[in-house]
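Changelog entry: the Trafficking protein particle complex subunit record was regenerated in this release. Current contents:
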Amino acid sequence: MQFFGGSDISPSPPAPTAPGNNAHMIYVFNRNGVCLLYKEWNRPLHTLNEQQDHKLMFGLLFSLKSLTAKMDPTSADKGNLGVPQLPGQGCSFHSFRTNTYKLSFMETPSGIKIILVTHPKTGDLRDSLKYIYNLYVEYVVKNPLYTPGAPVRCELFNTALDQYVRSIA
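Regenerated structure tokens:
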């Protein structure tokens, strides 16, 4: 495909060659937009610093949630575009796909937001995100040494998450 700059850009990235090569990165945010966990597996290019990246991702989620709520054809009460909604309130999105990645999203009733960025040919990840949330609850939330709202620094959780994410086809 040819774009304005004249460079040749592939319409989609090559398919993963090895199992576990599908996941690019994961974000876990709390209800206030604080990034509790960021982990990457297959991200060849870093264009922003970590703090800018987290702000950009949370802003994207905020905007998409507002947009989907405003476009909800089943609700007469649309509210104002950009006004935050309670978790589970209104219409939400589960994923979107571009030619280079797929972003899958889940928000829990407590306001925890889990974002998994994978290869664009990856299937539906809703059950996988629920499983990751269960890992988070078991290894992080139930850990008496964890302070709520602090970045996740639990080695057991990181190991279990890494093993699970690498198993996603």
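The chain is about 30% helix and 15% strand.
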